[in-house]
Amino acid sequence: MTDLVTAMRDFNKDRKFSRKGPLCVALVVTQHARKMGLPLNPDTLLTKAGGQVLGLGKDAVQAVLNRHGITSVLAVFEADLHATVAWAQAQQRRWALTLSNAGSYLFEDRCDLARLDEVDWAAVQARDWRQCKEGKQAEFLLEHSFPWHLIERIGVLNRTIYQHVVNALPVNGHRPTVEIRPDWYY
Fold it and tell me: Which of 143, 159, 172, 181 fits 94 for a cystine, CB–CB 3.0-4.6 Å?
């Protein structure tokens, strides 16, 4: 068992596999493997538009996480949009704002800050989104990964999560402000 634990830790370290994105992909692909059997054909895992992993949208991922006992968002990261876009352009990394869920079969995206007014900001900020579900799911996407040093603030639901997040931050290096922000949760 120790060899397995060591191998898993090495895999995690080498491939940075502890973040939500890779973990969700692994959970969704595992779910597909259970349904489709092995070996998996990678072409069957693409959305109709040819992007992401089929079933990796927010609702599907939350359902998978719920089955593993993860029932709520633990922390929300905040970054400055203009600083992030400037960084992405300097690094020659693509970015986009979607007008709805990027994991859906059909969505529109924008990669021009002059078109920010096309995002339904009222829907994004809505606490009751029954009438604006698509607009509520607008996303900012950054190619490959989001750099930790651009995270400026972390909002958490309560004191318990606050303490966990503060304890998880690196002692040396970038430490974004952590705030208890129940108004960010619904």
Answer: 143
The answer to whether the beta carbons of residues 180 and 158 sit under 8 Å apart is yes
Distances in whole angstroms, Cα of residue 146 to Cα of each of 79, 81, 150, 158: 10, 12, 8, 25
3-state secondary structure at position 76:
strand
- Residue 98 DSSP SS3: strand
Dist. CA 143–CA 88, nearest whole Å = 8
Closest C-alpha among 55, 60, 56, 58 to residue 129:
58
* Closest CA relative to residue 109, chosen from 141, 84, 87: 141
Q: Helix, strand, or coil here: 132?
A: coil
Higher pLDDT, residue 160 or 2: 160
The pairing of strands 140-142 and 177-180 is unpaired
Structure tokens at 14: 């080498």
Q: Is residue 32 pLDDT above 60, yes or no?
A: yes
Per-residue pLDDT, 41: 85
DSSP state of 159: H
Q: Note whether 21 and 10 are within 8 A (CB).
A: no
